[in-house]
Amino acid sequence: MTTPVWRRLEFSEIGSTNALGVERARLGEPAGLVIRSDFQSAGRGRRDRTWEAPSRSSLLTSILLRPQIPSEQIFLVTLALALAAREAMVVLTGVRPDVKWPNDLLVGGKKIAGILAEFVPHPAAGDAVVIGIGINLTFTGPPDAQGTSLRDQSGVTVSPEAMLDMLLRSFSPRLALTESVDGRDQLLAEYEVALVTKGVRVRLELPDESFEAEALGVDARGRLRVRRDDGTETILDVADVSHVRPAGSA
Ligand code: BT5
Q1: Domain shared by 157 and 209, yes or no
Q2: What's the pLDDT tens digit per position in 154-202?
Q3: Which range marks the domain in which residue 206 is found?
Q4: Do 101 and 50 contact (CB within 8 A), yes or no?
Q5: Which residues does a 6 A CB cutoff place in the pocket of ligand 1?
Q6: Is residue 65 located within the same domain as residue 92?
């Protein structure tokens, strides 16, 4: 996979950019499709949660890729998008968010962007991953969510189009890094620097237990390494953890 030529599809309203991306991926659409909408009537979060944003208050976009890398490395593509979003925010507004494992972007503990990756197997066209991101430009999130926006943090109002341009510009070189061993090391190193979920106490919610532990960092497969209070280490996969929060919070 060399970096695809981006083909943009823009809407004023859609159900979900990810849903359309998944539909197109199933139909065999080649890599490089970028879907953006001003508004989503059914924006998806992870695990049946929703993503909300008034029209043009956010960048709402999904990118269809067919990464030709081992399946256990595909998480790096998502991580590359998180890091690209971080850089785009720095360049356009000076705001430098932290990454909360696995892929939330936070400023001062408040969520400024969320990422949703969906895997679409396709033996003929090559397995696809549709990675969607919502970046709060002027909207600070629903009242019950601890959210913030780039405008709140910097006073700068960025348009969805300008954010998408910068995001793709930052994403392409990082996507290329996923293809080599050295590149993957470089991405993981950048991720470790951005990761706020490291060296801190976190509360983890798993399907059958929740506990507090010290987050140690990530392993080469992007899984979170934690040390429990009895001294044992546990490695957690994204799929197993529904929430990771600072210890002590609700
Ligand atoms: C995510 O889910 O953070 C992934 C969000 C991905 C959204 C993009 S937008 C373009 C593309 N198309 C889609 O349909 N989706 C993707 P999760 O970690 O489950 O977080 C969802 C939770 O964040 C919700 O339950 C709310 O509490 C909160 N939330 C919803 N909208 C928010 C916003 N605009 N800002 C901050 N928090 C928000």
Answers
A1: no
A2: 999 999 999 999 999 999 999 999 999 999 999 999 999 999 888 888 8
A3: 200-246
A4: no
A5: 16-18, 40, 43-47, 49, 51-53, 60-62, 104, 111, 114-116, 132-134, 136, 139, 141-142, 145, 147
A6: yes
